[in-house]
Amino acid sequence: MELPVSGPPRERSDAARNRELILAAARRLFDEEGPAAVSMDRVAEEAGVGKGTLYRRFGDRAGLALALLDARERELQEEVIRGPAPLGPGAAPVERIVAFGHAWLDLLDTHGDIVLAAESGPIGARFRSNVYASHRTHLELLLGEARPDADAGYLADALLAALDSELVLFMRTDRGRSLDEVKAGWEELVRGVVRVPV
Question: All domains of the chain, ordered by start, with CATH?
Answer without folding.
Answer: 9-59 (1.10.10.60), 70-193 (1.10.357)
